Amino acid sequence: MPSGPDSPGPASRVPGSTAPGPASPEPRSALRARALAAGAAVAAGLGVRAGADGGALAKYAGSALYTVLLCALVAFCAPRARPVAVAGTALALSWAVELLQLTGVPAELSARGTAARLVLGSTFNAPDLFWYAVGAAAAWGVHVGARRLATPSSSAGPRPAASR
After folding, report:
1. CA-to-CA distance for 105 and 108, rounded, in angstroms?
2. Which CA distances in Å does 44 have to 21, 47, 50, 62, 148?
3. Which of 26, 69, 80, 138 is found 20 to 30 A from 88 (Cα to Cα)?
4. Residue 28: what pLDDT?
């Protein structure tokens, strides 16, 4: 490993630290946990879609879960991202897709295939913007809670700022 002003040398490592470095592979359990979270988000979305009567509950729960799924995907791709960054990114993507529906492009693509209809939708619906925020807030809360459970705490030291 080259040593320079931008690369950490042996002196910068904390003795006895078990924290993985930037080049350390991620434990299999963490990868499984992220895959399980993404799978649970997909299952919840499909469950609401299949089990609800197609009314307002299904529509708005589906909108919130769309953002939850995006949160899971963002967290899967960027596992060290802070929960607020994960939720904010997913919310911005959800809003961007909804606002794109004002152009008519998603409607045209949705007419051509099921995958485009599921990912992009077809028509703009202003209340969806609110329900995307609800989904992002719920996913943020779960992410913060999961990080706190996964982080060993010490009564002698301050708690990590996992929610920032």
Report:
1. 5
2. 34, 5, 10, 9, 23
3. 26
4. 67
Please state the length of the chain: 164
pTM: 0.67
Higher pLDDT, 36 or 149: 149
Amino acid of residue 9: G
Integer-rounded Cα Rg, in Å, for the chain is 20
- Token pair belonging to 122: 């077809």
Contact 94, 124 (CB under 8 A): no
Rounded Cα gap, residues 125 and 142, in angstroms: 27
To 10 degrees, the CA torsion angle through 32, 35, 36, 42? Answer: -170
User: Rounded to the nearest 5°, which phi and psi values hold at 7?
Assistant: -105, 135
Across the strands, what pairs with 4? 7
For 57, how many CA atoms within 13 A lie in the half-sphere containing its CB? 6
